[in-house]
Amino acid sequence: MSGVVWHPSGWWLGPGEALPRGARVVPGGVNFAVASATADRVSLVLLSAEDGADLAEIPFPRAWRVGDVWTMTVLGLDPRRVDYAYRADGPDGVRNRFDPGALLLDPCGDLVAGGERWGERPRRLRSRILDDDFDWGADRRPGIPAEDLVIYEVHLRGFTRDPSSGVRAPGTYAGFREKIPHLARLGVNAVELLPVAEFDETANVLSAPEDGRPLLNYWGYDPVSFRAPKAGYAADASGAGAAREFKELVRDLHAHGIEVILDVVFNHTAEGDHRGPALSWRGLDGATYYLLAPGGQDCNYSGTGNTVDANHPVVREYLLDCLRHWVTEYHVDGFRFDLASVLTRDGSGAPLENPPLPEALAHDPVLAGCRLIAEPWDAAGLYQVGSFPHHGRWQEWNGRYRDALRRFLVGREHSAGELATRLVGSPDLYGSRGTTASVNFVTCHDGFTLADWAAYDRKHNEANGEQGRDGPGDEASWNCGVEGPTDDAAVLRLRRRQVRNALALLLVSHGVPMLSAGDEFGRTQRGNSNAYCHDGPLTWLDWNTAEDNADLVEFVRRCVAFRRAHPVLRRRAHPDGAVPDGAALPPVSWHGARPFEPDWSATSTLVAVLLHEPPDDAVYVLANSGADTREVELAAAPPGTRWHGFADTAAAVAAAPVGAEEPLADQRNVELPPHSVRVLVAR
């Protein structure tokens, strides 16, 4: 290497390469490249990988700078023994907030050290060089057609942290692997992991009101890195342990036919507003990475103090590169974008008609085939359900599906007609895109669990330290007569029925269903609708509950299997009412107490739909959200078939084994008990 120089700290240095950015092992040493358009001075800080102690601080020679990328190669550096960070300084100004004393993480760093012990305040966060040779074996991405997906949203730590999980390393990537058989038995074929990119769980200023203990940032929606897997989720976080264990988890999920979707938080960072710490982006080039008002104040469209300027050309390419990294290095299958509407705003914060970032993601060749799922709203009121810029690729969390199904099941007026639209894939929202653009859900990490939705009329968030003011407002919930825990057998029966109603409708709807972890066995957060700050029994899955509610787990398993067995439930095109040539029935027909007489009135509590796919795949769904039993005259089954009962949420055995459904004794009429759903199949 020409131009090699000696630095007094004891290292030989040479010019570096500007791409790829980050730290990369090269012959004879490590190449460092970090971009900053506004800094006058940038230094590389070498730190002990063992304890983070200072080893050397080496300024980047300006002569080796390539454009806005500061580069150099440190010769003889052992990546297993040395971590690193940066320091930067530059001109003062309303848009610059340099802190030359701060140790800054590499925005393109592959690992983060210093926060390996969950729940302990990090010790000198620093970047770590990823230099491993993982054996992926015969790993293949499952490549599941969108219409066949059943997504399971889950917090990685909470899935196994409770002692009842029985795993060897609770709350870790390794522990999660031991519970994959549960997912496989349930029939889900994609996990959507709440953030696993590095975050500081101790970054919460609030305290528990009952005892003053610090509350945590448990969910992880406050990133300190966009590329590094969370070290505190590793059973052995030494060296590249977090990367290795996450790869093992992905490989094992793939081996079971389960895709891995990451919840990525690109709308803001943990640096917060002007009161927050300089961790990485702000200290290097805050004027590039963040949306700032003319006076230099942080724009806050994320509700957390700052907003990433996602459509700035430099930031756009950076975010693309982060996603490519997760795909190429970790074999992940897709991404769910938190508060994705932020990603459609321009440098002034105004919504763009055709924002560059969503388009670039949709057409990037490395990301081709990956799931791109938008949470199509943000914290400043930009609501884009049905209108998020999709470019033929993006799917959306359908918040209107959740609201419609909940409102109908609790008996709200003007709800029957909208539920009908949601059951067939929301053609009013996704008419040109098909049913799979809609990710349907009843619950997610935000808001009540499904059991709590049927047990509470109002949120109970006092333990969050904000006097109960935080969290969603109206959740369209109903406590079934008693607020919270009760021994009333009738109330408990009704709650169980409501939970089954929601799950049954979700799993027979057109679109992509998403379950929230633990809903399949009645997980409760005791009415807390915003449990982001709790790391304990409130948020950990209690696997004893899965045993206690084995009948509910089996109900969900049978509903998933029923969906898989019937293509009529998984059509990509929205069904219409026109009878195809040679068919006995239209793709969809609506009914009421009598065939072909639906009730769309404001007070209707009955929705009945017959879904048909030639020659004879037919499913009849009947839902009664009223307090009275309804007598329903059935439409005739396709010629040569009879109606068989698959599910009856009011029955002791709420669903039959798929293929073993019993024929109805009366093929002309059925009785729908109060607050119940029946699903029939033609055989």
TrEMBL record:
Signal sequence, renumbered to the chain: none
Stretches the record annotates as Disordered: 462-481
A Pfam match: Alpha-amylase
Keyword Protease: no
Residue ranges constituting the Glycosyl hydrolase family 13 catalytic domain according to the UniProt record: 153-563
Keywords recorded for this protein, A-Z: Transit peptide
Composition bias type Basic and acidic residues, residue spans: 462-472
Coiled coil: none
Family stated for the protein in its record: Belongs to the glycosyl hydrolase 13 family.
Protein name: Glycogen debranching protein
Species this chain originates from: Saccharopolyspora rosea
